[in-house]
Here is the input.
Amino acid sequence: MLAGLVGGVVAAGLLLRGAWDLWAQSLVLLGLLAGGAAWLGARTASGWLPRPDPRMLWWPAALAALSALSAWSSPVPAYARPAWAAAAAGLALFPLISVLDSEGRERVERLLRFTGWVLVLLAVYQRLQGDIRPAATFLNQNAFAGAILLLLPVAARAGDWALAAGLILCLWWARSVGAWLGLSVALILHRRAVGAVAFWLGSGAGFIGLVAAYAKLQSPETLHRVEWWKAAWSMAASSPWLGLGPGSYAYALPAHAPVRPELSSLFAHQHFLETAAERGWPYALLWMIGLAVVLRPAPAGRRFGPVAALIHGLVDYALSVPGVFWLFCASTALAAPETGRSVNVPLRWRPALCAVLLALAAGSGVLVARGWSADRLRARAVAAIREGRLDEAAVLLEDSEKLSPHPEAARFRAELIMARGGPRADAALHLTRAIALDPYRASNRALLEAALGTRER
Here is the structure.
């Protein structure tokens, strides 16, 4: 059951567009909460509860706690808290995988291989349909490339060379220079394990990648990355302890970089800088130290994928996509040895522990469902506005904010009031709330000034 749950979470994250959308994240989170509660409840009721490796329990727990502090203190909480929940799902895979036995880990890898085949076949189909750079289920080829780097070792460990060849072909189609550099550097670092042929192939690919990177030094693609990295460093310097909150980079960017349309970006395109900017330097250091502790003693075949993905993350954002991050966490956790320990639960404690587990899972599920419902109501309100059903849109937005306050909902409510000639004071009130929930959006302040100016006249 646990292996199916872990493999299902990672597979669903990859196949649901990398869990990019809130509905996909919510669906996976609800499945993880329900499945995890059922498994833990069953094990608790039986009296024998698996005990995770302490390193694989307290390290991700500390990361989740630090990230939670960052999310709840974020200047953009409406965006930071869902991003925290998605990241926490990935961190939860560390203790879950650490209690799996060898058979359970093999089941997880079989599910990952199946997912790899789905991605490859879909990419081939897209290519046959005329897509020069197929992205399979992902919204961007660079995210697909990051997933490929993590799936390649899975195929190699199983001896599924047809899948490995398909993944390499998809990587070629993706044209991600950063991913090729990540693959080549990983091959060079693991030369003893991969053999001479793979080492020289990696060296050749690395040389070609360096030439390609050099050719792009003065390209907008590279120059924009430099600006994004500077902005991430500025964010980390402005809030070094807790950062600006998970998922906050895109919203804080206008305050830390020149305001130009071409510099708009959801991510910093540098995993470690973005981590420090959004979660603070203590989190970033703990994350890096923990990864080193887990990966350094691991067998080369287990270490290869995460190392390649981290090198790719130095110049790209694949690890910021929830589905790829979950795959990375699972791959890293699989690199650690299994523990095989259990804790006896006294009979008198079992009903109470089961009740607590179910209550925590149910409470967390309600919070996830509320956020998802609020997002759906906002989407319906936008559709209603486009179709001219303004009264219906106003009701939908009000219902959405009752479930979960959001700057977009507050802004839309203000715009509806102004469009319908309603009280400007009410519009100003909604805009003030929108600014409090997202202080970085300059257009909200411009609208507020317009509302106040009109009211004064």
